[in-house]
Every structure is written in C-alpha cells, then in structure tokens.
Amino acid sequence: MKNAKYFVALTLTALPLYGQGIHENFDLVAPNTPLSSKTVEGWRQEGPAPAGSAVIIEEAGYSSGKGLRLEKRETMVVYESGGPIWSSTNGAFTFKITFRFSGKILFDVALHNGSTSAGFYISINARTGELAASQGGGESAFRGNMGKYSVKELKKETWYTLEIRNVTLRTNLAEPTSGKLYLYEAANSADLILDGISVAASGSIPLSSIKTVLIRRWGEGMLDIDDIKISTASDK
After folding, report:
1. For position 12, what pLDDT does the model report?
2. Using CA atoms, how far apart are residues 222 and 28, in angstroms rounded to an integer?
3. What pTM does this model have?
C-alpha cells in the first residue's frame, strides 16, 4: 500500500496543471539522462546544438539532487505545458532560477506568451560582466528596449539566483507588465548583486499569460541550471 501511494504521488506530480506555475528541480529524473519531453514533462531541447547537449546530472544540482547542464554552445531548452503556465487571472507571480557557470559564457532567459514572444528577456554575459533586461517596447521579448547593468561581481563555479518578483500580467498595453529583478548568491540572499531593478515585458501586444520559458547558452564554458520556479508572489 505504501508503494501504491508513492506511485500515485509521482503520477500527480507529472500531470500538467495549467495556470499552476512551475517548480522543476529535475530530481525525479534518472542521472545522465538527455533532456526531452519523454524524460521531463513539458521540457525539450531545441536549437542548432546536437541532440543530447542538455543533460540531467547530479553534478549540476544546486545543494542536493540533480540539475540540468547545457553542455555545448547554442544549446537551447524550452518549457511549455500545453496551456498557460500563468495567466492574468492567477494574480501576481515570482519567477526564480538558480544557475552556475564557468568560462566566457553568455546565456539568455525568456518568459513569453508562446506565440508572438511578447514577454520578459534577460541576458547575462560573463565575458563582459553585464546583464541586459527588457524595458518594454519592441516587437517581441527578443527585440525590445534593453537596460544594461554591471554584474562584474559574478564569480565562476558559484551558484546564483535570479528572480523577477511581483509580476502582474496585463490585458492592455496602457500599463505594461513589469516586475523587479534581483540577482544574488544562492547561499546568501543578502549578498545582492542587483537589488530590485525595474524590468518590463517587451512586445506589441499585452503580456496576459506566460506559456513558454526559454533558456539558451552561447560562448565557451559550462552552464548548470536548477530550481526553476514560477509561483505566487507571496511564495518565497
């Protein structure tokens, strides 16, 4: 009976719950497994990098458990659940991702609506020590007005957490979807590198729902990611 209850719990965890956010730490996946929709619900690898360039391994996990390593240049991973991850009817949300890098890495994180790509866009360039964040405007999450901020304090082989807090999705462009971006050392949240900079979604239509999370890496080195979360803004 105990095993039956455990099986039911795993089954329920795997079901896509539209509008319920994400909480992915890759711990239910066998080590050394290439990322795909068959191995991790909702996730897939895209882009020009060879298949199998995104792998769930124990060495990539933050603190304990497993994480996702993007091993090669131009590796891109995408999460889509088949319906909205979060919508304007769900209230405010916070997005979090924990990462670690080595080398002259550059990587992007985007949260968008899955069709026109209206959304938030963040780019971290370890080579120049700079973070770029969308400030509204433009045609999509990938071509908007970008604010640039120094993150030269970022250290290689150190885990950091990136957050966009208190995001309320909008149904019109009169008041663009916006939030506050924080970047800090994962083991010490008081060690802030960026302390609540204002970010706004790009795009020519309102960002009323989040349907896609996209992460892609460029440059030389290693990128590990873990503990990806979209949840209610009060849930820290």
Report:
1. 30
2. 23
3. 0.89
